[in-house]
Amino acid sequence: MPNDRPTTMIGVTSGFGRLTFDPDTGSVEVEGLGSLDVGVSVNGSRLRHVRTETSIESPLMGRIVQHLAGDGATARLCWDAHTTENLHLYASVRAESALAVERVELPRVVLEDAADAAVDRADASGVLLGSSAAIGVAVKKYPWLASWNDVGAHGHRTLADSVLVAGSDGDSLAVTTAFPVELSAGQTLEAAVFLRRGEADSDDFRAALRHEVRYDHRDEVRYIPEGEFAEQRVWEIEDRWLGPPITEGALHRPYDQLITRPLGLNVLARRRFTWSNEDFSLWRLTGKEHYRDSGIKKAFALIDTQNRHGGWYEGVEFMNLPPEHHHMYDTYISGMFLLDAYDATGYDGFLQAAERAVGFWVSNPPPANGHVEVAEGAWWYRWGGYINEFGYTDERCVLNTHSGATAFLAMYAERTGDPDARRGAEAGLAAMRWGLERGIQRGDGQFLYCLSQIDPTLERPGDPPYIRLDLVPQIEDVYTVASSYRLMMALRSIPDPVITAAIGRALDYWWVGHRAGTVYTYRAYSAIAFGVAAGEIDLRYAMALPEILRDREQFTSMQRGLSSFIAPHGLPMPYVRARGRPGRFVEPIFVRRRRGEYLFALVNTEQPMRNIPIEVGLPTGVSLRGASLIDPAGTPIEEVPASWAPGGERTAIVGVEELQEFAVVVVRLELDEPDA
User: Fold this and answer.
1) In this structure, what are the phi and psi dihedrals at residue 337, rounded to the nearest 5 degrees?
2) CA–CA dist 75, 67 (Å, integer)
3) CA-to-CA dists, residue 414 to 226, 339, 407, 448, 564, angstroms
4) Measured between alpha carbons, how far is 22 from 24 in angstroms, rounded to an integer?
5) 54-71: b (≥16 Cβ within 10 Å) or e
6) Do the beta carbons of residue 290 and residue 240 sit within 8 Å?
7) What does DSSP assign to residue 281?
8) Residues 6+ apart with CB under 8 A from 39
9) Which of 49, 372, 430, 661 makes a 20 to 30 Å CA pair with 319?
10) What is d(CA 406, CA 151) in angstroms, rounded to the nearest whole number?
C-alpha cells in the first residue's frame, strides 16, 4: 500500500479503494466514489482542518492522521486503510479547557450523492445509499471518556447512551451521544467506526456488512464471551490497544488505571485467552476481515513501541519497579504475535521486529539483561530487568517467562534458521534441565513458579510478594499447565526426552488435581496443552478434553490450531468442522500436524450424536488420501478406517458414525502435499 505524492496530495491504495488526501484542505476523494466527507463536530460546530500527516506507509497498511481544531477543543481523525475492504476511522476530541459538550459527532460521514440513510440499531451499523454506490458504517468503539497521565488512561468510562444516527437530509451518518458530557482540560472523548463500500442495490454488499458487524457467528459465540467481544469497543485507541486493569496480586495499583500494553493482553484479568491475541485465528475461523485488520494494527503498534534493546517496557511502573523496566511477558508474547502476523501476511517488517526481540533475549548484558547464565550453555530467561545508576540489575527468574522466551526463540529459528535464536532456544532448554535437577518440579509433578522457591539465594529484591504470600492463588498450578504448553512448542524442533518426561508428569499432576477440584488454570491453557500433549507425548491425553471443555471458559479459537501460537511452521493447515446440527456440540481440537498427516480430536460437549459429517477444508495444493478414527482409550490404541468423500472444491467430508456425550475420538487425515 505505498503512498505517492505527485504534488501536495497524499495517495493511499487500499481494499476500500484508492484514497486521495489534500493536506491543505483536508478533503478526501475515493476513486470511483467521489468525495467522502468525514468530520468531527462539537456543539454543532465542525472542527476545522489544521494539518495532515502520514504515520504508517507500508504495502500492508497506510495510516493518515488529520489534526483538527475548534473553540476550546482539538481533535485527531485517524484513517487506517488496509488491504481488506474495511476503512477504519478513529476520532478523538481533546478538551483544551473545561468544555460542556451538548452534542458531539465522532465522526460524521457524508456521501455527497446519498439520498437515503438507514440505521440498524441491533447491529450499531448503518448504510448510506447513493445513486450507484453505497457506504456501510459500523460502530467499532462507542464514545469513551478518559483522563490521561504519563502512565495511561484513568477515570475512563464508555458512554453507553451513544447512538448512530442518520442526518435529516439522508446523506450522512454520525456517532453521537444522547446526553451532555462535561470535560475537564486534558480529557478526551473518543470513538471509532469502520466503513465498507458496495453497490447501492447489492444484496451481497449488505450481507457482507452484516457479517462483519454482527455478533452472531457460531465461532464467535463459542470462542468469545459477549463481554469480551464488547471489550474491543473499549480498549482500542488510535494507534494501539490498552490492556484492562490488573489488580489481582498488585493491591497498590489503582483499580481504574489502564495499562498501555501494545497488544492489550489481559494478563491476569481473564481466565481464558481473549481476542487480544487471537485476531488471526478468529479471522480464519469467521472470515471477518476486521479481525485481520486489528491484528495488523497491533503488530504495527508493537513495532512502534519496541524499545532500543528489542524488548518492551512495562506499561505501568509498579511501586517496586523503576522506570524503563523491561516486562518480559510483553516481550515474548509480542515476539510470538509478530511471528503470527508475519505468517498471516508475509510482511518482512514484522519478522525484522521479531529479529530485534531475539537480540533482546540472547545478547550479553548489557544491553538487554534478558537472561542469566545458570550453568555453562544454560540460560534462564528473566521475568524483568531494568537500568539504574549502577548499571543493570538482576530480576526474578520465573518459569512462565523462561518457557515463553524459549518457545519464541525456537519458533523464530524454525522460520529463519537463525543460529543465535537456535542457540538461545537450546540454552533455554538446557536451563530447564538444570532447574529440574534442582527441584523446579516437585515430586508430585507440579512445577514451581520461581527459582527462588528452590534456592533462596536466587531471590532478588524485585521478587513478588505473592511467591510467599499466595496473593495469586494456585499460581504454580496455572503455570504448571501454561509452561508445559510453551515448552512443547520449543520441543517440536529441539527434542529433549528429559523435559518431555517432566511435562508428562506435570500434566498428570494437574489432571488429578483438576478431577479433585484442587487446581485450575486460566486462559484455556488446559485445552491447548492437553490437545498438543496428545500429539507430542501420548495420545491418551486427549481423554482429558471432554472434561476440560465442560467449562465454557476453557474455549479459545487457538485450540483449533489456526494460529502460529499453536500450529507448526511451514505446513498448510486444513480447516475442519462438524457440519449441520452436530456443529453446535462437536468441537475439533488441534492435536498434531506433520508432513503428510493431520490429527485432531473431536469432542462432544453435549448430547449423543450419530452420523456426524466432518468438513475438511484443504489448502491449495493439498489433497486428502485417507482418513481413520482412533479411540485414545483403546487397549491397544488402534486406527479404524473412516469413510470419506470429496465435498466440493478443495473440501472433503469425513464420516464419524457415533460420538456419545462427553466422548472423544481422534481423527487422522492422510494428506498428499507438495514437497517443501
Assistant:
1) -65, -40
2) 6
3) 36, 11, 11, 29, 12
4) 5
5) eebebebbbbbbbebebe
6) no
7) H
8) 46, 47, 77, 105, 107, 108, 110
9) 372
10) 30
Strand pairing class (104-111; 48-57): unpaired
Cell of 67: 489534526
**Alpha-carbon dihedral of residues 355, 358, 363, 365, nearest 10 degrees?**
120
Q: Which residues does 110 contact at the CB level (< 8 Å), separation at least 6?
A: 36, 37, 38, 39, 167, 171, 172
N-to-C CA span, the chain: 29
Which DSSP letter does residue 441 get? B
**Collapsing DSSP states into helix, strand and coil, what is residue 515?**
helix
Phi, psi of 625 (to 5 degrees): -100, -30
Contact 361, 412 (CB under 8 A): no
Give the dihedral sign, CA 104/108/112/116: negative
Task: Say what the pLDDT of residue 259 is.
Answer: 60
Q: How far apart are CA 633 and CA 601, in angstroms?
A: 13
H or E element that contains 76: strand 73-82
Write out the E strands in 607-650: 609-617, 623-630, 639-641, 644-648
Name which of 153, 178, 151 is nearest 165 in CA terms. Answer: 178
d(CA 629, CA 632): 10
Helical spans, DSSP H, in 460-544: 466-469, 475-491, 497-516, 525-536
pTM check: above 0.85 = yes
Contact assessment for residue 277 and residue 263, using Cβ atoms and an 8 Å cutoff: yes
How far apart, in whole angstroms, are the C-alpha atoms of residue 116 and residue 109?
A: 13
**pLDDT the model gives residue 545:** 96
- Cis previous bond, 636, omega within 30: yes
User: 312 near 244, Cβ under 8 Å?
Assistant: no
Alpha carbon 94 to its chain's center: 29
The pLDDT value recorded for residue 397 is 84
Residue 467 to residues 301, 327, 402, 439, 460: CA-CA distances in angstroms? 32, 18, 16, 16, 12
The pLDDT tens digits for 556-574 are 899 999 999 999 999 999 9
Q: How many CB atoms lie within 10 A of CB 640?
A: 11
Beta strands in 342-480 (DSSP E): 371-375, 378-381, 384-388, 391-393
Residues in the chain: 676
- pLDDT at position 159, please? 87
Q: For residue 676, give the C-alpha cell.
A: 517443501
Q: Point out the residues of the chain with pLDDT beneath 50.
A: 5-6, 247-251, 466, 469-471
Helix (H, G, I), strand (E, B) or coil at 578: strand
Closest CA to 361 of 330, 339, 317: 330
What digits encode the pLDDT tens for the residues 202-240? Answer: 889 989 999 999 887 777 888 887 777 877 777 888 998
CA pair distance 307, 330, nearest whole angstrom: 12
Closest among 626, 631, 640 to 665, alpha carbons compared: 631
What is the pLDDT, as a whole number, of residue 417? Answer: 97
- On the question of a cis peptide bond just before residue 473, with omega within 30 degrees of 0, the verdict is no
Query: Which grid coordinates are listed for 382?
Result: 528473566
Pair 311, 328: CB distance under 8 Å? yes
Reduced to 3 states, what is the DSSP secondary structure of residue 563? Answer: coil
